[in-house]
Specification:
The protein contains ten helices and four strands. It has a two-stranded antiparallel sheet with strand order 1-2. A two-stranded antiparallel sheet has the order 3-4. The protein is 56% helix and 6% strand.
């Protein structure tokens, strides 16, 4: 009988632990339930860190998953910043591998992003220059700037100005 591949072992470990793909994804940073499903079908290649996290979450040895054979379809293509494989074949400067097998950039340039961060990136890329500038200004504001802005808005509100004047007359 042929040895089981990594995807099969991940699925067996998950089901033996009584976990759904969603539950396992919540325990493994940077992976969604969809990613777990794809890994179980050997459609994406996971990083060693992700495989170790899956082993820890499911209670199997890291060695059993790390040393399991990975079918070629999961080990070819491009690896994204979260360790996922894509068939787009595009090359970027973040250490991704193109379909030609060449790697560009450095793996030190990769970064894992959550689903919410991915949505922010997509929205930012689709925005016009003015919106991008406003978004950056908002993200760079400190808490003190934010509080000052709120207080300034309140003080300039005519109703609140009258209330503050009434309070001042009491003191």
């Amino acid at each position: 009988m042929a040895a089981k591949n990594r995807g099969q072992l991940i699925k067996e470990a998950r089901t033996a632990a009584g976990m759904t793909q969603e539950q396992l994804a919540r325990k493994v940073k940077g992976l969604s339930a969809s990613d777990i499903s794809k890994a179980e079908r050997n459609e994406i290649a996971l990083t060693n860190e992700q495989v170790k996290a899956i082993a820890k979450a499911t209670g199997v040895t890291q060695k059993s998953l790390l040393e399991a054979p990975v079918p070629k379809k999961a080990s070819s293509g491009k690896t994204s910043s979260s360790g996922k494989t894509s068939s787009s074949g595009k090359t970027s400067s973040s250490g991704k591998t193109s379909s030609s097998g060449k790697t560009s950039g450095s793996s030190a340039n990769t970064m894992k992003v959550s689903a919410d961060e991915k949505k922010l990136i997509q929205a930012y890329r689709a925005a016009d220059a003015e919106t991008k500038k406003a978004a950056m200004a908002l993200l760079k504001k400190s808490k003190n700037d934010e509080i000052g802005g709120i207080l300034g808005s309140l003080i300039n509100n005519p109703d609140i100005k009258d209330a503050l004047s009434g309070l001042q007359s009491l003191f």
